[in-house]
Specification:
The chain is of the alpha/beta class. Helix content is 30%, strand content 23%. It folds into 5 domains: 3-92, MurE/MurF, N-terminal domain (Udp-n-acetylmuramoylalanyl-d-glutamate--2,6- Diaminopimelate Ligase, Chain: A, domain 1); 104-307, 3-Layer(aba) Sandwich (UDP-N-acetylmuramoyl-L-alanine:D-glutamate ligase); 318-447, Protein-Tyrosine Phosphatase, Chain A (Alpha-Beta Complex); 456-683, Alanine racemase (TIM Barrel, Alpha-Beta Barrel); 690-813, Beta Barrel (Lyase, Ornithine Decarboxylase, Chain A, domain 1), CATH 2.40.37. A hairpin with a 2-residue loop joins strand 37 and strand 38 (749-754). The structure holds pyridoxal-5'-phosphate.
Length: 814
């Protein structure tokens, strides 16, 4: 893309405020964090329900961004950049993409369906790219924002597009259709997911078919509803397992080893092909791909040879712990230019280490000449402050000179052979390679070897939950987020970094050392320490942490140190006891508290707080109200008599939900961020954050009458298939969860825990579950949920979450 601002604003129907109408635009961005933002970026300030990118514009101007699409020009920015002012920035982004799309005229495949879109897209890309310059949506960019961004990367060299469209409710598809303008349609499996947004299946199908309004052909499984609602001008190219009156009738399947062989009839002849999968979803997805190849008139031999090479698709960027303190970002299955940009943005958002290495294979299908492509890659590498590039492949090796600090290897095997001579220490490493380079071997070498149990943390879910609670806050109410106990067991520093990005106002920890490790990790947000011991006051001051002071003794001790160190206005937080009777000044010492603080300028009361004992339990509603009233009264008195105006705060998560009129100046969000609500009605609005996963170590058949585990507490009443999994009470799983009380989930099915849970292992019943050794096991997550476990064990989700041992590796992903 190379466009002048003066040619863009008419397209957007924007009013242009700015002087440099000749400014050149070559990239579009919506992500304020991206280091790829620069003088030629057009930044669309999107406005979400709780997030407004206009607030980043001032910062972006300081790093050199000069062109913005906005709904209003932010204060203080007026003369500093070009502003294209529109009513709705998302609509403008979509219009811009539709305009860009209209400049090109080549076949474009539009994909939708409930399941399988991304897999079919990736497979089609693999199957067709030897013969086309393919542009496709990166990852699962299929939303109202993702689709325009994908389409905006089309360039002159592409000659086939593959874009996926995902919708969750009515009226969305029409917008996506205008942007993608597919000429060929593919409808993948139309299951029952996303049904909430639609009245019924019929409505959902009608809505999805809108993507194909202008296509000449639609590839799909035979379906009466589709037949009924498809535009008459669109020809359906159908397949079926059961109905012979279709274009492609798949009449037989044979399973052998890990493969499936499918037989089909087409144009009166029979053919076959083999894929390395056996599950139903993969079969259907492969048939969708077969249909597209038949439509493009591929011969049988090509179809067979390419289908045999289909591979599992990993849609997420995974963060893993590496050797020598490294952090790995594993994106080892694709290497196109668009997804490289996304991966680099992700690398930046990790902010783990100063030092950054990218291990990169040859890049395919950019649509650019190699010279142009690797020039662009090197620009990306520079703007993202990558310290070292390790290039693997013949082509990237030839362009070694384009990179400042670059090692190259002809192929993965050569890298592996030289691995011992390379140094990887205290750095973040992005591993990004095309499928054929088999970078999983590199990931294996660099990954820290621990046992197979991991707690996966979904960072998007955290952002989502944060925004959910933000939306409940009145204007100007600040937000403190509690990250004590390693972020409720979910990972302290990583979550704090995300929260810093989201510009929360404060973090809260329990002890000074928790705050110190966050500060050492680079966190700059103010951090309140709930329970500072007197012995830690010096460290608190040294690391600019802010103590909560809850008694006179502590206050005097802190004042003494503050004076010794000649501090001025050092921020402290005053905790009042209004009924919890844990920590805090009681009413009878308020007078002395005020006297001690009067005229004292070594410290400054930054906030006054109290904590509620029963905010989650409406049975005690009156008690909560009395706490709120007492807090108001005591804090007002302190403010009046000292003549100060600190931040006042009282509400925790359940308080935010149940006492919306008592937010004062700030709230303290805890458990809700981690996806748990004490209120079942609210729970369904939150997203699950943590999934504790492990794998099956061994499977055996236990005959009737035999026992399992210590104390012989389980006796088989039927021939029982027993799986042993490597997680036990030392990992934080309560023993009370064993002996038939609890279960894990394997292949989507419940497997009851048999007998007593051991220190490092437990045994589960998989008699009715089809599974093999090495299969993945979910200990908690979507099912069972943490709340479900807590309820059965007569405890609270907080205890379940924070009990997970630190020996369980945390893996963060988006
Ligand atoms: C832990 C804590 C919170 C957060 O409580 P949640 O119930 O997890 O929201 C708030 N305030 C104080 C003082 C806390 O100790």
């Amino acid at each position: 893309m190379n466009l002048l601002i003066k040619n863009i604003f008419p397209v957007l129907g924007a009013q242009c405020v700015g002087s440099d109408l000749e400014a050149i635009i070559d990239t579009v961005s919506i992500d304020s964090r991206s280091l790829q933002n620069g003088p030629h970026t057009l930044f669309f300030a999107l406005v979400g329900p709780n997030n407004d990118a206009h607030s980043f514009i001032e910062d972006l101007i300081t790093i050199g961004v000069r062109n913005f699409v906005v709904t209003h020009v932010p204060e203080r920015c007026a003369d500093k950049a070009n502003f294209l002012v529109v009513e709705d920035t998302l609509v403008a982004l979509q219009r811009f993409a539709a305009y860009h799309r209209s400049l090109f005229d080549f076949p474009v495949i539009g994909l939708t369906g409930s399941n399988g879109k991304t897999i079919v897209k990736e497979w089609l890309n693999f199957l067709l790219s030897p013969d086309f310059n393919v542009i496709r949506s990166p990852k699962s960019y299929n939303s109202q924002v993702g689709v325009p961004l994908s389409v905006l990367s089309i360039n002159e060299k592409h000659n086939l597009g593959i874009f996926e469209a995902g919708i969750s409710t009515v009226a969305e598809m029409e917008k996506l259709e205008k942007i993608i303008r597919p000429s060929i349609g593919v409808l993948t499996n139309i299951g029952s997911s996303h049904d909430e947004g639609f009245d019924n299946l019929e409505e959902k199908i009608k809505e999805k078919l809108l993507l194909f309004k202008h296509t000449s052909v639609l590839i799909c499984q035979k379906n009466d509803l589709v037949d009924r609602y498809l535009e008459p001008r669109t020809k359906a190219f159908t397949w079926s397992f059961v109905n012979e009156a279709v274009d492609v009738f798949v009449f037989k399947k044979e399973l052998e080893n890990q493969d499936s062989k499918l037989y089909y009839k087409y144009n009166g002849n029979s053919y076959e092909f083999t894929i390395p999968f056996q599950d139903q979803a993969s079969l259907e997805n492969a048939i969708s791909c077969l249909m597209a190849m038949l439509y493009f008139e591929y011969d049988t031999a090509t179809i067979q040879s390419r289908m045999a090479l289909l591979f599992p698709v990993e849609m997420r960027l995974k963060v893993k712990d590496g050797i020598n303190n490294c952090t790995l970002i594993d994106d080892s299955y694709s290497s196109d230019f668009q997804s490289l940009k996304i991966a680099l943005d992700f690398l930046e958002s990790q902010k783990q280490y100063q030092k950054k290495t990218v291990i990169l294979s040859d890049i395919f299908q950019s649509g650019l000449s190699n010279e142009e492509l690797y020039t662009k890659v090197s620009q990306l590498v520079v703007s993202n402050h990558i310290n070292r590039v390790i290039g693997i492949g013949e082509t990237i090796s030839a362009f070694k000179d384009k990179f400042a600090n670059c090692l190259t290897f002809k192929n993965t095997a050569e890298f592996v052979a030289n691995f011992e001579n390379l140094d990887f220490t205290n750095e973040t490493i992005l591993i990004k390679g095309a499928r054929s380079f088999q970078f999983e071997e590199i990931v294996y070498l660099l990954e820290e070897k621990t046992h197979e149990t991991v707690l996966e943390i979904n960072m998007n879910a955290i952002s989502y939950n944060l925004n959910f609670f933000k939306s409940k806050l009145k204007a100007k109410v600040k937000l403190m987020v509690m990250v004590k106990a390693f972020g409720y067991g979910s990972g302290g520093l990583e979550i704090a970094k995300l929260l810093e990005h989201h510009k929360v106002d404060y973090l809260g920890v329990a002890f000074a050392d928790e705050g110190i490790s966050l500060k050492n990790g680079g966190i700059q947000l103010p951090i309140m320490v709930l329970n500072p011991e007197n012995t830690s006051f010096s460290a608190i001051i040294q690391h600019q942490l802010e103590p909560e002071i809850y008694c006179l003794k502590g206050l005097y001790a802190f004042l003494k140190i503050a004076k010794q160190k000649n501090l001025e206005h050092f921020p402290i937080h005053i905790k009042l006891d209004t009924g919890m009777h844990r920590l805090g000044f009681e009413e009878n010492v308020i007078e002395e508290l005020i006297a001690a603080l009067k005229g004292e300028d070594s410290v400054e009361v930054r906030s006054i707080l109290t904590h509620m004992a029963t905010s989650d339990d409406l049975k005690h509603h009156d008690f909560s109200v009395s706490q709120i009233e007492l807090f108001d009264k005591l804090s007002s008195r302190i403010m009046r008599e000292l003549g100060i105006n600190p931040i006042r705060h009282i509400l925790n998560t359940s308080g935010i939900s149940n006492f919306p009129n008592s937010q004062f100046d700030m709230v303290r969000l805890g458990i809700g961020l981690y996806g748990v609500s004490n209120d079942t009605a609210e729970q369904k609005y939150l997203e699950n954050v943590g999934t504790l996963k492990t794998v099956i170590s061994q499977i055996r058949l236990v005959p009737v009458g035999e026992s399992v585990g210590y104390g012989r507490r389980f006796i088989a009443q039927r021939p029982t298939t027993v799986a042993t999994i490597p997680i036990g009470y030392a990992d934080g799983i309560a023993r009370a969860w064993g002996n038939g009380v609890g279960f894990v989930t394997i292949k989507g099915k419940k497997a009851t825990i048999l007998g007593s849970i051991c220190m490092d292992m437990m045994m589960v019943d998989v008699t009715d579950v089809e599974c093999t050794e090495g299969d993945s096991v979910i200990v908690f997550g979507e099912s069972p949920t943490v709340s479900e476990i807590a309820q059965k064990l007569h405890t609270i989700p907080y205890e379940i979450l924070t009990s997970i041992s630190q020996r369980v590796k945390r893996v963060f992903y988006r």
